[in-house]
Amino acid sequence: MNVIKVEVPVMANLHARGEHPEYLFWVGCAGAFDDRYQKVSQAFVKILAFLGTSYAVLGREESCTGDPARRAGNEMLYQMQALQNISLFQSYGIKKIITICPHCFNIFKNEYPDLGADFETINYLQFLDQCITEGKLQLDARALSDVCITYHDPCYLGRANDIYFEPRSILKKLTGNLVEMERNKSFAFCCGGGGTQMFKEAEKGDKEVYIERTEEALRTEAGIIATACPFCMTMITDGIKSKNKEDEIKNFDIAELIVKSLNL
Q1: What whole-number distance in Å separates Cα of residue 37 and Cα of residue 235?
Q2: 225 falls in which pLDDT band (50, 70, 90)?
Q3: Contact (Cβ atoms closer than 8 angstroms) between residue 172 and residue 178
Q4: Least CB-packed of 110, 155, 169, 205 within 10 Å?
Q5: pTM higher than 0.85 for the full model?
């Protein structure tokens, strides 16, 4: 096992020493507070340490992007949160932000510029795929060679930002047994959690959206359902549990699968 001692650098501490990391790693609400998604944050941090990446987090200074507020219709709260974040980024001279949440990625990249934001937003899968392409990150497919994997496209990565190639490129280097669901890429079916749907009661209908999507995943007979979004992870995990398949089928984020491959 490659044992890496990980000490997560905090932007304020580095700034006080006159240091300017290349990237801000935006952890996000789920990555900071959700017990399950904290493991994804930890996995990505291990990869950053393994790569020797110059980065920092905001720690206690990190707030919400305002995405849930805007999706729920509270525009004033969104703009208050966004302007506060933009001011903080400018005070630290932040020019590049890596996100592990597609919702944070989308609003930073496509909506913050309307309020004067001037920074580059990078999804962690784009970052990791580039590191693999450049030879900085070499994956060992043997760790997952006997596992069939299917991938669920997050709406805010796929349809919203056309990120289809990178996750599949990474997964193909992790396993030779990647299978697609019936609806995938631009035709992929939503997990049912986006647009603040995860925070409200279900609407009338014959079936929950996350159940429909989980059934599609189960029909592939994959042993692992790979996700790349905290909302998707929550909904797909609930779907697996609703089918009593949690002992047979596992839901992992792509960062976690890379950590398994690297044996970190």
Answers
A1: 12
A2: very high
A3: yes
A4: 205
A5: yes
